[in-house]
Amino acid sequence: MPALEVATRSGRVVALDQKAVRAFGETLDGQLIQPGDAAYDDARQIWNAMIDRRPALIARCASSRDVQRAVAFARESDAVLAVRGGGHNIAGNAVCDGGLVVDLSAMKRVDVDPGARRARVGPGATLGDFDAAAQRHGLATPLGINSTTGVAGLTLGGGFGWLTRQYGMTVDNLTSADVVTADGEVAHASPDEHADLFWAIRGGGGNFGVVTNFEFALHPVGPEVFSGLVVFPLAQGRRVLEGFRDLTSSLAEDTNVWAVMRKAPPLPFLPESAHGSEIVALALFSTAGAEAGERLAAQVRGFGSPLGEHVGMQPYAAWQQAFDPLLTPGARNYWKSHNFRELGDGVIEQALTFASRLPSPQCEIFIALVGGQAARPAPDATAYAHRDANYVMNVHGRWETAAEDRPGVAWAREFFDATAPYAAGSVYVNFMTEDEGARVGSAYGPNLPRLKDVKRRYDPDNVFRLNQNIDPRA
Ligand code: FAD
To answer: Rounded distance, CA 310 to CA 312, Å?
Structure first.
């Protein structure tokens, strides 16, 4: 029987006995996928098509026990281990070359207890799965803006979206989690049990083990919310962004507004002549009802002469999917991100300059407003430290072909460099690319020393290293 080669954590490639591999596969409630299997090519694909890796084994887990078996197999064989939730992370750590992928995408269960306002969520659930189940009861918790993103990775890095100003970061709503740690045991992490681990997984990413179950607090939301877009030509960008800055400096916590600069997609509410032209769009969101929403929209319209708009009451779950068509998997993506405490004139100037030279029609610069309840906890209350980041800017380079990589990456990096003098110096760990290992200190900030202590306790051998890694030995 031919041997299967596997990449090890010690940097070697070793042969695995096929019998041992078969025995591992037979212990799984789920499926073990190998090169040559019909499911292999689909199973190794993730959201960012720039990442093209070929794992030796993909354990598509169906249960927490499967995860324990996979972690034990990786430990015993010394195999490089990657953990995949929704497969959306830009850095591509959900998949590895030559190692074992613990693929959680089939563990999508979402159980909502409307009385207790709690949800138990499996590690393969997407934001769309979670929102759909919670909204059946008129409930929600803060999640991100693209419904195909995984709850797991988003939560472990912090998590923010439209509801964050009102209800905090996603991690502020995590009440407990079950974690398969490097020794293969399951730790129930909560404020009362494994409290240090519970602290660390709320912003420290996948460094501490594989979360097989998340429990979240829920809040009454909608089912209808005020939301939509008001779109201006980029030529009016300065007034619009200055208006955005003034508006967001004193916005109610039940309201959120993000700014997006890009080329206009062919949206039905925009004149055809504007399609493909450079725009700045303000995305509006409010849970305060139609009247408050209309007042917000009226204020925003006054920032210029809109090319078009589509605002009004609509189901929260629909708004949570509104950006999906622009964020489909399969394109090549490269991101650069800064946190800002405030939007200085210099940032606005640079944003306008770089938005006027987008290297491809799908590239965009977005400025997300955070603050509100997300700013309330102390920086050391959870591993997510950046409570002073009022704005998170992401330079989203996106295109279809490898030939566009070089100009696209250069554009993103140049813009990132041009805005660095105005930035807070910190970065949202979930927006970091694979080449940004040197920014790990900026991602974990003042919480890095404590994160290292917890890492040493739960994963001293760095079994969970394919992430924005907290090296226990460094
Ligand atoms: P994966 O790539 O599957 O996982 C990312 C990493 O998390 C893995 O490499 C692994 O280290 C770890 N991991 C995943 N699951 C587990 C687990 N169960 N246990 C332990 N470790 C695990 N973020 C926001 O906060 N707000 C947004 O609005 C937002 N919008 C986004 C829009 C798009 C189009 C994309 C691509 C991303 C967006 N993000 C947003 C970023 C998002 O939070 C991260 O990409 C996140 O890592 C995605 O999680 P995932 O489970 O889909 O990714």
So the answer is: 7
Structure tokens at 93: 């750590």
Instruction: Determine the Cα–Cα distance for residues 3 and 21; give it in Å rounded to an integer.
Output: 10
Minimum-distance ligand 1 atom for the alpha carbon of 145: 28
The residue contributing the CA closest to ligand 1 atom 49 is: 153
The CB of 124 under 6 Å from ligand 1? The reply is no
Ligand 1 center–CA 209 separation, angstroms = 15
Is residue 375 a contact partner of residue 387, using CB atoms and an 8 Å limit?
yes
Q: Which residues contact 263 (CB under 8 A, 6 or more apart)?
A: 276, 277, 278, 279, 358, 361, 362, 363
- List the chain pLDDT tens, one digit each, 474 residues: 566 899 999 899 999 888 999 999 999 999 999 999 999 999 999 999 999 999 999 999 999 999 999 999 999 999 999 999 999 999 999 999 999 999 999 999 999 999 999 999 999 999 999 999 999 999 999 999 999 999 999 999 999 999 999 999 999 999 999 999 999 999 999 999 999 999 999 999 999 999 999 999 999 999 999 999 999 999 999 999 999 999 999 999 999 999 999 999 999 999 999 999 999 999 999 999 999 999 999 999 999 999 999 999 999 999 999 999 999 999 999 999 999 999 999 999 999 999 999 999 999 999 999 999 999 999 999 999 999 999 999 999 999 999 999 999 999 999 999 999 999 999 999 999 998 989 999 999 999 999 999 999 999 999 999 999 999 987
Would you say the CB of residue 150 lies under 6 angstroms from ligand 1? yes
Strand-pairing partners, residue 405, are: none
**21 Cβ neighbours under 8 A, 6+ residues apart:** 4, 32, 34, 57
**Three-state SS at 391:** strand
Q: What is the dihedral sign for C-alpha 258, 263, 269, 274?
A: positive
Please state the φ and ψ torsions of residue 229, each to the nearest 5 degrees: -120, 140
Please list the residues that pair with 6 across neighbouring strands.
14
Residue identifier of the C-alpha nearest atom 18 of ligand 1: 211
Paired tokens of 81 = 């281990």
* Cβ-Cβ contacts under 8 Å for 26 (sequence gap 6 or more): none
**Ligand 1: distance of its center to the CA of 87 in Å?**
7
Which residue's CA is the closest to the ligand 1 atom numbered 45?
Answer: 89
